[in-house]
Amino acid sequence: MSVSRTMVGEPVNLNEFQELARQALPKMYYDFYAGGAEDEYTLEENMEAFRRIMIRPRILVDVSRIDLSTNVLGYNISAPILIAPTALHKLAHPEGEVVTARAAAACKTIMALSFTSSCTLEEVASSCNAVRFFQIYVYKRRDLSALLVQRAERNGYKALVLTADSPRVGRKEADIKNKMTLPKLKNTERFLSLETSSDNGSNLAVVAKETKDASFCWKDIEWLSTITNMPILIKGLLTREDAIKAVKVGVAGIVVSNHGGRQLDYAPATITVLEEVVQAVGGRIPVFFDGGVRRGTDVFKALALGAQAVLIGRPVIYGLAARGEYGVRQVIQMLKDELELTMALSGCPSVKDITRRHVRTERERLHSML
């Protein structure tokens, strides 16, 4: 979806925050955040696929009061909108993830902190009193992964988000052209060197190849569960087959995700496979969702197709780059306001009233034409 470059005045939607971020950031950093893998088909399709889902509103329902609140892993939050783990917030704002965490706390929602954060997990934990999750990859050095998990647990993080779709890093051509290299990662700088160069201009893929454990597989989830008491969410699932395996190995939840279109290009848009995963899980564990959420109507559609909550990534970065903590709060509030209006106009007084019958997918539309 193209973003207007002639925006003037106060932003009224998330796409306009993207344009503010483009104006505020150096091109290298904007491209790093906004870009996707290779042809960026999946990046664009994540958003476009929402446009092919129609809402089926119900009328003459008492919507004089709308309740957005919900529960995630036993924690009450103000709306089914969480902050997804995204890297290197200090490239967008001098105070980095500390500011993002404060905004999450002010909005009464949950932030999942990326292990590739610009601030240490301890700095973020001490910045405000809020529920936080911690995202992790598994390294060839399992002792380093275990240390990070233990630090997160010791500092009050409530769940572990295992990103499982990145045994290697997707090829992002803008990063190669811009010669984007990883700065020091605060959580691992004492233990892991990133002093690596690459002939193609960007060191991201080389660093990942030298550090990430590409052999990590389903049987290793048991190892991860032995080193923490935190519930484990597995992020990066796109198929029925893997959803069944996730339930079998005992994870606490699933995040349907294609890494924001940054890993495997031509992977399906997440909203097109959400229902497949939900049906495979059969209510045994909660299913969460990320990828392409830019409107409250997108949140509504994901909830109708079975997600318990959505996670937003890039819009948070855009708000942070444009206006710091206030910008992040604005982004979350915009989504909440749009979701509230969508619920009212669709006849849903509360989140639990949003059902599968409130949406019509492209497949259903095409089937009806046969």
TrEMBL record:
Pfam families: FMN_dh (PF01070). Gene3D superfamilies: Aldolase class I. One of its GO terms (biological process) is hydrogen peroxide biosynthetic process. Its main location: other. GO terms for molecular function: (S)-2-hydroxy-acid oxidase activity; FMN binding. SUPFAM superfamilies: FMN-linked oxidoreductases. Its EC number is 1.1.3.15. It catalyses: 2-hydroxyoctanoate + O2 = 2-oxooctanoate + H2O2; a (2S)-2-hydroxycarboxylate + O2 = a 2-oxocarboxylate + H2O2; 2-hydroxyhexanoate + O2 = 2-oxohexanoate + H2O2. The keyword Membrane does not apply. FMN binds at residues 85-87, 114, 135, 163, 235, 257, 290-294, 313-314. The active site is at residue 259. Residues 6-364 form the FMN hydroxy acid dehydrogenase domain. Glyoxylate binds at residues 137, 259, 262. One of its GO terms (cellular component) is peroxisome. It is an enzyme of class 1 (oxidoreductase). CDD domains: alpha_hydroxyacid_oxid_FMN. The keyword Zinc-finger does not apply. Keywords: Flavoprotein, FMN, Oxidoreductase, Peroxisome. Signal peptide: none annotated. It is found in: Peroxisome. Its cofactor is FMN. Belongs to the FMN-dependent alpha-hydroxy acid dehydrogenase family. This is (S)-2-hydroxy-acid oxidase. It comes from Quercus rubra (Northern red oak). The lineage of its organism: Eukaryota, Viridiplantae, Streptophyta, Embryophyta, Tracheophyta.
